[in-house]
Write a structure and sequence with these properties.
By secondary structure, the protein is of the alpha+beta class. Helix content is 41%, strand content 22%. The protein has helices spanning 13-31, 38-46, 52-70, 74-83, 85-92, 144-147, 160-176, 178-181, and strands at 7-8, 11-12, 72-73, 102-113, 118-122, 131-135, 191-199, 205-215. The chain has a five-stranded mixed beta barrel. Strands 1-2 form a two-stranded antiparallel ribbon. α4 crosses α5 (85-92). The chain is globular, with a radius of gyration of 29 Å.
């Protein structure tokens, strides 16, 4: 026996169902669409495209000011971190995502020989199992200056390379500034006061990126 399609008003039910489905899909597409102004569209297109070098040049001075204003005593900070790392980090440190917390610090100590690109500092009050180092250049490693304010985040930039470049560009002025003015490797045995920033990635080795170096009074 031949099968026949049921009809309604002369139209096959299959046609009616398909037409109804198409209308429903169009309705979902329409009501699920976000309409933007030209300004909103431009903001979306340019999101995550911050120029890293320009950003660093624009924010270098404010970063230095932040470190000077926020610097805490290193020996006391290490003591607090050992007593309550999470609470102290959240109170005094900054980070982007799950990276190590970065701190602004100041400390006074006697310059000692250190590893490549660093000198060590003998700092009163710092536990004997913690090495305190200060970067000397010519290469300045790490992203402590980038991360210390908590204002620079990965999603501001197009990719990981640009995100890293911000840190490099913020470090560059140190080479022709504080590190050019202070040859730390020739200051062995002298007492100095350092202001700078470091990432708490290794509890046994603090490596400070310096923004200020002065002979201790």
């Amino acid at each position: 026996m031949a099968r026949t399609n049921k009809t309604r008003g002369g139209r096959p039910w299959g046609v009616i169902v398909k037409a109804g489905g198409a209308v429903a899909i169009l309705a979902v597409c329409f009501f699920g669409t976000t309409f933007m102004t030209p300004e909103e569209a431009e903001a979306l297109l340019t999101a995550g495209s911050t120029d890293p070098v320009a950003y660093a040049e624009e924010h270098y001075d404010s970063t230095i000011t932040y470190i000077n204003d926020s610097a805490t005593d290193l020996a006391g900070l290490i003591e607090d971190l050992r007593a309550d790392e999470q609470g102290t980090s959240e109170e005094l440190g900054k980070r982007d995502g799950e990276a190590a917390y970065t701190f602004a610090v100041t400390t006074t100590g006697t310059v000692q020989e250190g590893g490549f690109g660093q000198v060590d500092l003998a700092v009163e009050g710092v536990p004997s199992d913690v090495t305190v180092s200060v970067q000397t250049g010519p290469a300045v490693m790490g992203t402590a200056l980038r991360d210390v304010t908590g204002e620079v985040t990965f999603d501001m930039f197009e990719n990981q390379i640009d995100y890293a470049q911000v840190g490099l560009s913020l470090n560059d002025p140190l080479k022709t500034g504080v590190l050019a003015d202070n040859d730390l490797t020739s200051m062995i045995g002298q007492e100095i006061t350092v202001v700078g920033a470091f990432a708490y990635s290794d509890p046994t080795h603090v490596v400070i990126t310096p923004i200020s170096i002065q002979a201790a009074s």
